[in-house]
Amino acid sequence: MSNVTLSPQKQMTTMLGHPVAENPIDQMFDEVYAHYGLRWQFWKCDVTSEDKIAAAIAGIRALGFAGAAITVPYKIVSIPHLDEADDDVRAIGAVNYMTIKNGRLIGHNNDGKGVIKAIQKVTPIKGKRVVLLGAGGAGRAMAVELAWAGASHLTIITRRESQGTEVAQTVTKASGVPAEWMQWSGEVLVPDNTDILMNATHLGAAPELESVPVNWESVSKSTTVVDVITNPRITPFLKTARDKGCPVVNGVEMLVQLAMQIFEEWTGIKPDEAIFQRAVAKALGE
Predict the structure, then answer these.
(1) Residue 17: φ, ψ to 5°
(2) Which of 30, 58, 74, 147 could cross-link to 175 by cystine, CB 3.0-4.6 Å?
(3) Per-residue pLDDT of the chain (286 residues; tens, 9 = 90+)
């Protein structure tokens, strides 16, 4: 165990989102806090509608939380309620966690950074053509970070044209990398020469475990298939890809990578990745 002085008082951290029940983040963080001898605790708060998010964020300040994560569907609408946003949040247009300094709520976004580290364990990103299914708060962060990491082209596939084109424009503005929107209508036909295919939607999450409507005949075995879902580790989307012979990257690996950075920002302790990996496996009952 690290030589860390016990906190004189309990510190509280939280995550705001909807739904949050199946996300293992609270059990993972609590296990890591305990490992490092911190009297900290992580709470998941289900904020059931957008009109409550301002009050929820105000409550974080009022209740003296040490830090907070923001998850879907509030990564974009939360920004106006913060005191400050870092360069990543301003470039991406979404926030996924907050640090709290002298009572000020400062927004950050490392969604994409977690994705980059997870993908690079399996395949290089530089020069790759990426197809992204979905473009919500997490998706847009991942799209921008993939471009910053050297992807040569991005295709954003969404049902709503306004959302997809706006994210494609954000990618190109932030990185100079060409990005285009493609209509999601029925079963997705994946463009030829796709190197990385990523599901950035909620399809496949527990407990529904819905399938992502992809025409798998259009997916090459050489395509690396990525899912952002954190529970289960192997979603129906990833199982189909793996059965086809594609390399896969799961959302749990992404969660670990971004959670380690958040933990360090909140506590000042650089964690051992093995501790996080064991904690998330335990949270998932693996």
Answers:
(1) 180, -175
(2) 147
(3) 444 444 457 999 999 999 999 999 999 999 999 999 999 999 999 999 999 999 999 999 999 999 999 999 999 999 999 999 999 999 999 999 999 999 999 999 999 999 999 999 999 999 999 999 999 988 999 999 999 999 999 999 999 999 999 999 999 999 999 999 999 999 999 999 999 999 999 999 999 999 999 999 999 999 999 999 999 999 999 999 999 999 999 999 999 999 999 999 999 999 999 999 999 999 999 9
Confirm whether pTM is higher than 0.85.
yes
The one-letter amino acid code at 136 reads G
- CATH of residue 76: 3.40.50.10860
Task: Count structural domains, the chain.
Answer: 2
d(CA 111, CA 228): 10
Cα(111)–Cα(151) distance, rounded to whole angstroms?
17
Whole-angstrom distance, CA of residue 251 vs CA of residue 233:
7
Which residues are part of the catalytic machinery?
75
Domain that holds residue 55: 11-109+255-283
Residues 126 and 40 occupy one common structural domain: no
